[in-house]
């Protein structure tokens, strides 16, 4: 697993051993970043359920202003810190080892991009979207980028959010959900 492009291009990122995390595959990551490539530079990113941190790290490499990485696992949080140092991007990042839903309920920060890739079949995708909306985590024109099983419907949030495109990669889907500007 490597950083695709930007200042850390080609940096090899480590993965956790075992089956506790499911890193986004290279094919999915390339397609995802092709879809949002113009929505990254200068933005604030939240990588929830961060795992290896590869999605937020890719954003930082592509010019995101800053990124917050949240994972409940101590091993995952330590790995994200290591991967950020290896990529030379740790100065613009914060890594928190805490519960994702608890973080959403108490953070005063607002973000431009929210990456959601929770464990499949856990119900956490739906809960994270509800919390993100309830606690107004996204800035205007913000984007939720959610990875989920292709067979599972994406939970459609209420306005001012709308579901953009869903990209399918075999058994995996990535859905982009946008926060519209309030008129």
List keywords for this structure.
single chain; 183 residues; alpha/beta; Rossmann fold; seven-stranded mixed sheet; 28% helix; 28% strand; globular
Q: Kindly report the spatial arrangement of strands forming the biggest sheet.
A: 3-2-1-4-5-7-6
CATH architecture verdict: 3-Layer(aba) Sandwich
Gap between N and C termini, in Å? Answer: 42 Å
Output the structural class: alpha/beta
- Indicate the CATH class: Alpha Beta
Number of domains: 1
Q: Which consecutive residue ranges, at least 5 long each, have pLDDT under 50? A: none
Strand content range? 25-35%
Which overall shape is indicated by the principal axes computed on the Cα atoms?
A: globular
* CATH superfamily heading: Vaccinia Virus protein VP39
The whole-number mean of residue pLDDT values reads 92
Describe the protein.
This protein is 28% helix and 28% strand. Strand 6 (161-169) and strand 7 form a beta hairpin. It starts with 25 loop residues before the first helix and ends with a strand. A 7-stranded mixed sheet has the order 3-2-1-4-5-7-6, with helices on both faces. It is of the alpha/beta class. The radius of gyration is 15 Å and the shape is globular. It has one domain (26-179): Rossmann fold (3-Layer(aba) Sandwich). It contains 5 helices and 7 strands. The mean pLDDT is 92.
């Amino acid at each position: 697993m490597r950083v695709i492009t930007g200042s850390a291009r080609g940096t090899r990122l480590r993965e956790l051993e075992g089956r506790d995390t499911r890193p986004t595959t290279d094919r999915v990551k390339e397609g995802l970043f092709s879809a949002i490539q113009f929505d990254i530079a200068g933005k604030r990113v939240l990588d929830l359920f961060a795992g290896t941190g590869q999605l937020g790290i890719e954003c930082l490499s592509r010019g995101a202003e800053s990124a917050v990485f949240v994972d409940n696992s101590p091993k995952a949080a330590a790995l994200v810190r290591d991967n950020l140092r290896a990529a030379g991007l740790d100065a613009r990042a914060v890594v928190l080892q805490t519960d994702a839903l608890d973080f959403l309920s108490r953070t005063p920060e607002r973000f431009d991009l929210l990456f959601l890739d929770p464990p499949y079949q856990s119900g956490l995708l739906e809960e994270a979207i509800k919390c993100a909306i309830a606690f107004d985590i996204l800035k205007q024109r913000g984007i939720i980028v959610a990875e989920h099983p292709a067979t599972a419907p994406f939970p459609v949030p209420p306005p001012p959010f709308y579901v953009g495109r869903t990209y399918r990669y075999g058994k995996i889907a990535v859905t982009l959900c946008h926060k519209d500007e309030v008129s």
